[in-house]
Write a structure and sequence with these properties.
Oligomer: homodimer
CATH topology of the domain at 54-89 and 121-286 in chain A: Butyryl-CoA Dehydrogenase, subunit A, domain 2
Largest interface: A-B, 103 and 104 residues
Largest sheet of chain A: 8 strands, mixed
Helix content of chain A: 55-70%
CATH architecture of the domain at 54-89 and 121-286 in chain A: Beta Barrel
Shape of chain A: globular
Number of helices of chain A: 22
Chain lengths: 598, 598
């Protein structure tokens, strides 16, 4: 079983040299933070997660969370203790505003911490993650009183949060939900209905659970325009603001899942024994869907990070195994000696592929986070707007591309382990199982692809995506100043050309019939992710090349190699997607269901 | 939970129109078989597997095989009964020679039956599969007496077989094995040592288990040249040839695996309580490795089939779910109605991708089997030789490409299910877990890639692979006769050109340094599989087009569409692999292990 070690050097490199943390720290809002302080925070966080949370990942998987006869949920041994320490250390508050009791650091720093926590234990990390989502909603849409009552203890982690959207017939189609909210005389609402897939819907780690629940009021219009959002605390607060009477919220069952066993996925029943669970409206009636969109970007980026986090964790295990395991003789090795499998070319390819994709995913997710920060805090309106647009464009790439890649990279890590990879005790199979949900929840990757072609490409009539293409092309000038980077320059240019061609095809033909855009949307998302990643890897090569002028540094030299490997050997794989992107919808729809069944 | 239905129409189509079953049946050896009879056998087999074995797949996963306190293994409820019925029906013997009590059908027919059995339950199918391997070894290398004693009851399935190769330090590197075989006075050998990953190493389904064990005699040379192969029966046969005294073979433990829980994967200890377990030498001392090569092609093809089988099973589940599940409104659907998700373009793409790859895998594996049959039974020596070469070339593609694709297609089937795919009760996640071993065992896919570039390309100085390229190019003439197939023709030509370029690069640069060939071997295997599959799909389009002249047939019309979809939209994805294939080894080896760790 491999230990986890936070990849601080690479995190720091991306923060400082690729996504602009130093400039971000100069903005008034983050004036008290500086890159050095951030480095210290991440170092301490990395130690905490590696030492206290990482070791819980296996028990979390093997024992899992359990539903007791009394309807309560017990998390795996050690989860509650570690969570208590997490609360005491104040990790949850770091990226939230000081006004609400947070640390006032950029969201970007919170994202780096999320990466680390999720690598340590994805199942554990989901409790703070869902809380973050609920905090987000309250910060933006809660009343003064609600923020006062709930935010402080949610930000410090004493209370956790959940998001209750999904119902049996309302998954990707949130607008189909049927949970009810009936106004009570005291201004509260009575909430009833059944919600499924509720992450940490009950548990024993926090003193209260603040459920955010989507439901319909009696006269609500149908579909997404009739959804309201409610606070439904597990324990209704008493007059002094402390958890009081238990609310009418019950765990019906826990799901038996492929992975993330430590994280209890609940079926929750609201108002089963009374007229309804006590709920408090957030903001206005029928505006719930709009409020959800506020949190969506953060949530989707966090799920994209899960692809990165588990790829990193699985890669660390694979790299360690490849150095220890000896099998066969590599070409050139002394006769009669068996070689560590890392010396076999194909194992090297698997390791290099993992490392290169991990570096690319990290840069993409962090850039997305930095753009979100800048869209909020930069003094210049136009710059805020440009960053908001970039963040919007990148969200489906961070979520969709990183989680697809996460599935593939954890599978490669299993493969490096050979037969041992298939044995659960080895531990690497858990990462492969755990990460599989990330391409599904928070909007399946198909939904991400539809979002990319249906909402993001049309922004400013295509202006946002063409700005992105221009931004990527702008790197060519600097690449052109280095003769040794010619092949990177050429490969990147070809890929950007293909991306532009594909983008224009989708925009032109999607206007004729939206099915044309949707039919190619998933391969298009893959292409968009791959090209953006190639551009970010080329940037890393340039940054490392600049820094290397001062001397000799193994990390920076490796950056140049993995960057070149990505751009020369992995990026071109996206080229083959263009025919699928530009094929249109007709062949997809020309078989009946019975013909598809053969 | 979706039922399994054998895809008889497509199986029959490939047998009759793509891989030449009718011509094969005209050979003397198979004169008693004809395509109609084969169709009948497969129909009955399909019914048997769907009705009796398919329903056991879930309990096999949930309960798994269990090691009892007395060291015996109990298989999941229903496995032993179904196996008994399997023996009574005589399914195991169908593809074996009548001289040994088999049905005398082509191996090709046995392979079609294997596909069906593995779709029904991969975990169940492994018992007959391992038995087949042991039979193979005895047929080719056993003495007259050994064949007489063991073969009949192994072919009818009363006794099962196992293959004992792997040891803790000898996996991919079989030559490192250390199990001992000391000659006894009576001509038998005393076998001692520990073997791991022994599939169905013990169980309660058969009256005896015939272990084939690789071990070293006292004066054996080191490495693969010093390995001998022994028969070690669970119950030593008494004078009348019946199972008698228990041998000194013990199950130390069962592995806790990612999938195929129904199949007991044993650590076996030989000779723990005595001087050694009783073993009987097969053939000559030190020839064991050569004997293993005899069985290797069959075994690797069977594992390739597992990629096909579980893709088919998972696809059936996904297709059913996509028709039942309603979410959102597809473009063009009536307002206010939710659409079945099969009407969403991206879900269609996932389903079409699965279907197209399944058809391609089936054609590839069946062609491989047919070539193996023809290499054995054709009257003309040159034709036998040509088919033997083709079979050798295709083996790493069947094994490596189909199992990689199997991982991807079962993952797509999970994705079609959305959140339900992650819930174990839905059943589709099991196929995703089960199939994951297939890319690992029987030679990891990295080993397959090394075999392809290191052993198969050099055959006849490249003559075999260039013959294959010429054979693929020859389809161009027929494609050229159909105007509507121009795009297929063009796409296939481009892909074959790329494959030829990549092949020449590997052959030229592999001579300079074998690491150049090995470095690109995995993407090269992928390219080789994809191009060969594209050629086979184009053949299917042509065959369907010919047959459609007579009228209207939904199945044949669908063939044209899936074939075109594959060649136009999936085949081009291989193009992007060429840069990785032709990059050489240097970047792969330029980072130290510590640099790889960042």
């Amino acid at each position: 079983m491999s230990d986890y070690r936070a990849p601080l050097r690479d995190i720091q490199f991306v923060l400082e040299h690729i996504v602009g943390l130093p400039e971000l720290c100069q903005v008034d809002e983050f004036a008290h933070a500086d890159p050095e302080m951030v480095a210290g925070v991440l170092e301490e966080n990395g130690r905490f997660m590696a030492d206290l949370v990482g070791p819980l990942n296996v028990v979390g998987d093997q024992v899992g969370s359990v539903l007791n006869a009394d309807g309560s949920v017990t998390t795996p041994d050690g989860f509650a203790d570690a969570y208590q320490r997490y609360v005491e250390a104040g990790w949850g508050g770091v990226p939230f505003s000081e006004a609400h009791g947070g640390g006032g650091f950029p969201w970007l720093v919170g994202v780096a911490m999320q990466e680390i926590m999720c690598s340590a234990s994805m199942a554990f990390s989901l409790c703070p993650l869902l809380t973050q989502g609920a905090i987000d909603a309250l910060v933006h849409h809660g009343s003064e009183e609600q923020r006062e009552l709930y935010l402080g203890r949610m930000i410090n982690g004493e209370w956790s949060g959940t998001m209750n959207l999904t119902e049996p017939d309302a998954g990707s189609d949130v607008g189909a939900l049927r949970a009810k909210a009936v106004p009570a005389e005291d201004g509260s609402y009575l909430i009833s209905g059944t919600k499924i897939f509720i992450t940490y819907g009950d548990h024993d780690m926090a003193d209260n659970i603040i459920h955010l629940v989507l439901a319909r009021t009696p006269d609500a219009p149908p579909g997404t325009r009739g959804i309201s959002c409610f606070i439904v605390p597990k324990f209704v607060l008493d007059e002094s603001g402390e958890p009081g009477e238990p609310n009418d919220v019950h765990v019906v069952s826990l799901e038996h899942k492929l992975g993330i066993h430590g994280s209890p996925t609940c079926v929750l029943s609201f108002g089963e024994n009374t007229e309804g669970a006590v709920g408090y409206l957030i903001g206005e009636e029928n505006a719930g869907m709009r409020y959800m969109f506020t949190m969506m970007n953060n949530a989707r980026l966090s799920v994209g990070l899960q692809g990165l986090s588990l790829s990193e964790r699985a890669y660390q295990a694979a790299l360690e195994y490849a150095q220890e395991r000896r099998q066969g003789r590599a070409p050139g090795a002394p006769k009669g000696e068996s070689s560590a499998i890392i010396d076999h070319a194909d194992v090297r390819r698997m390791l290099m592929t993992q490392r290169a994709y991990i570096e690319a995913m990290r840069a993409l997710c962090y850039l997305n986070a930095a753009a979100m920060d800048r869209s909020r805090v930069l003094p210049d309106e136009a710059e805020r707007q440009a960053n908001a647009e970039l963040a919007e464009l990148l969200i489906p790439l961070s979520k969709g591309w990183c989680t697809d890649i996460g599935n593939e990279m954890t599978s490669l890590a299993v493969q490096v382990h050979g037969g041992m990879g298939y044995i659960e005790e080895t531990g690497v199979a858990q990462h492969f199982r755990d990460v599989r949900i990330a391409a599904i929840y928070e909007g399946t990757n198909g939904i991400q692809a539809a979002d990319l072609v249906g909402r993001k490409l049309p922004m400013r009539g295509g202006g946002v995506v063409f700005d992105h293409i221009a931004r990527m092309r702008a790197l060519d000038t600097e690449l052109g100043q280095h003769d040794e980077l010619t092949s990177i320059r050429d490969s990147l240019t070809v890929a950007i050309d293909q991306f532009e061609t594909a983008t224009r095809w989708i925009m032109d033909h999607g206007v004729e019939d939206p099915r044309n855009a949707l039919a190619g949307s998933s391969p298009y998302l893959r292409l968009a992710g791959q090209v953006t990643a190639g551009w970010l890897m080329a940037q890393q090569v340039l940054a490392a090349t600049r820094l290397l002028v001062d001397g000799d540094d193994e990390f920076l030299q490796a950056k140049v190699v993995t960057g070149r490997f990505f751009v020369e050997q992995l990026l071109p794989q996206a080229a083959g997607l263009v025919p699928a992107i530009t094929a249109g919808y007709e062949d997809l729809f020309s078989l009946s269901a019975s013909a598809l069944a053969g």
